[in-house]
Amino acid sequence: MRLSELSRAAGLSPTTVKWYLRIGLLHRGQPTAVNQARYDDSHLRRLRLIRALIEVGGLSTDEVGDLIAAIDDPHRSIQNILAHAHRASAASAGTKAAASAAPIDDYIRHRGWRVRADSPARRDLAAVLDAIAALRPQPASGAAGVSAEVTTPDTTTPDAVYSLLDPYADAVEPLAAAEIANTPADLPRDLLVERVVAGTILLERAIAALRRLAQEHHATKRYGDPKAPADTP
Amino acid sequence: MRLSELSRAAGLSPTTVKWYLRIGLLHRGQPTAVNQARYDDSHLRRLRLIRALIEVGGLSTDEVGDLIAAIDDPHRSIQNILAHAHRASAASAGTKAAASAAPIDDYIRHRGWRVRADSPARRDLAAVLDAIAALRPQPASGAAGVSAEVTTPDTTTPDAVYSLLDPYADAVEPLAAAEIANTPADLPRDLLVERVVAGTILLERAIAALRRLAQEHHATKRYGDPKAPADTP
User: Fold this and answer.
1) Residue B210 and residue A122: Cα distance in Å, rounded?
2) pLDDT in tens, B25-54
3) ipTM of the complex as predicted
4) Which InterPro entries does the annotation name (chains A, B) (predicted)?
């Protein structure tokens, strides 16, 4: 197909597709004339992957570029690409805080997980624990006589971290195990990679959305049905 | 405390704190002299909340501003603030795609959930389903003889959507129910609000990080331990 047809099929403007070609996110087509090329199904699939990563995954074009480079390198292992997908996804969560690593090292031992020392998910989790600890009222301040226990989860001891995180880890670990187990190892590499990337980044958004819908449902059950629209007092 | 002490305690530069005062993210201190004011624990707590939302939650200062305005409005219900936290969090996921709503309406009926028609989580979930559908190879293209079933999840029928999403919804719904049930209703409002916001946005990052760690662990179990660092082929 021609560039105009490719753009239309991918739901993108020709300008955007030309830009992706220029910066190397999309591989070149088969030249047919000066300034003309023919594109095939592999181009359409790649554009749909890029669109999903940017529009749903929230990645920047730079992050997508790094991930595409890993995908296109035939020497990369599937785990290496998974690590890249994790890194792109973690960076987009905006985790810039220098976070304390020791409680996370302990927690990963507690779960019996084998994960790389430089996994970005460690840093993400450490940043969350640090943020929760910072929000917890100091005992000295005594915040209007309210004890800290009822307001912000305790993260000051290993046991407190286990109590906070274990229900979440227990819920997601069987899902993650099934995701890995259900990936057919004999797929052609490009399809395998798409599946891993889609499974990692897109389903992460789905899980977050499902949790928010369930929170809203249970809040409505507890506090009643708010008749007024959300922006009316 | 003075502005310099407040900044140090919050781990922010005085310039940043002054900027938050100027744009109204942080409430003014008690004036003590021309160009001097005294700040208290409420300022420190607010700065820590802002920092957590920006650095860990990945929200923009505009999104934090909207959320703070909702928090500071004494007429807002807890559900209304939850809705604002959801909206801020969803917008930061970069969901701009026009997504089809019908499969999500059906799925929410299937779960028996009562959620508002304008919940941003609906749009997030619809965008994920659309992206997965776009990545699925067309039967006509026949992608090297590989059947579509083994590559990308099916989302073309209600039953296929249930099969894809139910394991995730089953895993997160009890957690969401416990989060709502464990929120003490008689807390002072500012602490209640912090807890809801922290529970919604920070734990969402924690869940994503735990899933990625568990994925990495199970990938290592399946494919072996990659000795080489992630960036070496």
Assistant:
1) 9
2) 999 999 998 888 999 988 998 998 898 888
3) 0.81
4) DNA-bd_dom_put_sf, MerR-type_HTH_dom, MerR_fam
